[in-house]
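Predict the 3D structure for this chain.
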Amino acid sequence: MSQPSRPDLRRVALITYGCAKNLVDSEVMAGRLLESGFALAGDPARAEAVLLNTCGFIRAAREEALEGIAEAVALKAGKPGLRIAVVGCFPERSRDALSARFPEVDVWAGVRDFDNVVSLLRGKRFRAGRRAFLYSDRSPRALSTPPGWAYLKISEGCSGRCAFCAIPGIKGGYRSRSSASIVQEARGLADKGVKEINLVSQDSTFFGRDRGREDGLARLLDDLARVDGLSWIRVLYGCPEGVTDKLLEAMGNPKICPYFDLPFQHADRAVLRRMGRATDARRGLHLLEKIRSRVPEASVRTSLIVGFPGEGEREFEALRDFVRKARFDHLGVFAYSPEEGTRAYGLGDPVPAAVKEERRKAILDLQAGISSSLLRRFVGRMIDVLIEGRSPERPRTWLGRSRWQAPEVDGLVFVRASAGRLENRIRRVRITSSGTYDLEGRLT
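Done. Predicted structure below.
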């Protein structure tokens, strides 16, 4: 692979779209760039190169990436020397169509060559990767999250058979990192002052199984809990079928946040069968009961899909009834997006967009009441809060999260405090009030 060489490049604007796993890949690319003498520019107009790490998972993500590419191309029209590189899931999926649409883009690369970012930008030859890039504890990484917390990616790809998901086709089968590499990276993060690590994977509960290790996630959590300096360890993106007794036992460690991120996707058995999923409403409610009995004050997040082919009013009502009974702490809802190359693509898209949105809103309205009710239990209590920074809108107020709130997707704790340096520290806070998704409290 070769492009005209550009040894003069110094400042790169790195823009990330999509999930936390993409963000980790961008942080590794940023680390590689800084290691090689580049500077990162926050403003693309002040850079010699724009690097966009894209998501191609669903239509909404692709549309967001297309807007970003178009903006970079428009910037290049007034700045002809600007170099544009587009990498990640979107070009891995649709490189030919994208390159035909945006001939102004200098470099297209998929998910295999993040570690070759310097050669990509400078137009130098390199040996392309054979499979999706998976970093290690030896990879340079420039964190972009607040200093108090970080994501830690434990695997790449997926070996699941969900009919609606394009990830296996984009990134290949599931590949776990070694536990030793993950623990070593966690030690390095703790040495930098990170208090909370958030484990991310396409399916964290599958961790280690590709290496023949049962209960690999439970063993990994036991190892991470022994890392000095870490206070909170949170697991994101698990599969309901992967919650074992060993995992529940590991989740009882005080360092492990009592937080379960389990996308159930739906509750109706027929819809789930077409989705390639197994946990229906009856099994799901039984699992939730087991989790809550084994892990006191467990917080459960789920993701749901409305409008999947075959979801009529009866099937949707089954989903709504499941949400009503499950009483999730946190919940996200997505309208079904047919993805070319997936098994579900042949089912078409029979549910009108307006109906999907109506159903999505109905679930969110139901969840708002559940969330508001559940948060009231914290009022009057003293809880630990990781302070992330000052509120830009409220004087003498800081923003933070509890053990029951994941970064970027859940609510916040608004902390009233008169003075002092509080950010990136875990402090005791007395909760004084609750809202639909957020808590408020005072520093004690």
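DSSP finds twelve helices and 18 strands in the chain.
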